[in-house]
Write a structure and sequence with these properties.
Helices cover 82% and strands 0% of the residues. It is an all-alpha fold and 240 residues long. It has one domain.
């Protein structure tokens, strides 16, 4: 009895169909989990809004704090999960901790100064709203850790081995969002300082150039990552 090519290679038709089913089940399984997660978050949000609307005023502040803590915890979870997808060295961990601590301290200082001059209405030492500083630190740290994961991804995809190159990629990734914001916001005080012929204009100019350097480095790494992915895809197509 003759065997066809699939049996000679050790792959029967039923096995091939099962392998194809498993390959399709992977993305569908992940998509179903994401759909259930989004649906559950929407239902929980609707229930929270309904409970808050029917609650007395003294409980609404507590419910708001609970919502803020839950949101910050979810953001922090995904940031840490993204961070530990890639390997890093002890020196890189120390650099991330240093940037994290300095970034949180600068965020609190800037918010405190904005509150003092009346740009924002929130006060960090308000005893009526406990946990405000914790929420700010949690969200700031999550953004910085997500940037660190982005920098580590560049190191992994581009196979950066030199320690200085890896540190530059990680630090630039952590400061990607603050640098983009500074790149758009710093020209205003810079032009004001130049008009007043103040020495503070030099500080704003240096800060703006630093933001430009960080943004440029992140852009170069991102473009290299995309280009490398396209090259790998093209090579796989040619190999087939």
């Amino acid at each position: 009895m003759a065997n066809d090519g699939s049996e000679e290679n050790g792959n029967r038709p039923d096995e091939q169909e099962s392998d194809a089913g498993l390959a399709l089940a992977g993305p569908e399984h992940r998509l179903s989990w994401w759909f259930c997660g989004v649906l559950g978050a929407n239902v929980a949000g609707i229930l929270w809004l309904a409970v808050r609307a029917e609650s007395p005023p003294y409980l609404q502040g507590l419910l708001d704090s609970f919502m803020h803590f839950a949101t910050g915890a979810v953001v922090a979870y995904f940031a840490f999960r993204a961070l530990f997808l890639y390997a890093f060295h002890l020196l890189e961990l120390l650099a991330m901790v240093l940037v994290l601590s300095v970034g949180v301290k600068l965020t609190l200082t800037v918010l405190d100064k904005w509150s003092a001059v009346g740009l924002i209405s929130m006060t960090l030492d308000d005893p009526a709203r406990p946990g405000k500083v914790f929420q700010i630190c949690l969200l700031t740290g999550s953004v910085l850790l997500a940037g660190a994961a982005w920098g580590l991804r560049h190191c992994t995809v581009l196979k950066l081995e030199h320690q200085l190159a890896r540190l530059a990629s990680i630090v630039a990734g952590m400061l990607a969002l603050p640098a983009a914001a500074g790149l758009a916001a710093f020209p205003v005080p810079l032009l004001r300082g130049l008009g007043d012929k103040s020495h503070v204009a030099l500080v704003w100019l240096l800060l703006w150039l630093l933001c430009l350097l960080i943004t440029g480095l992140n852009t170069v790494l991102f473009v290299k990552t995309l280009t490398l992915r396209e090259e790998i895809t093209a090579q796989e197509k040619l190999a087939k």
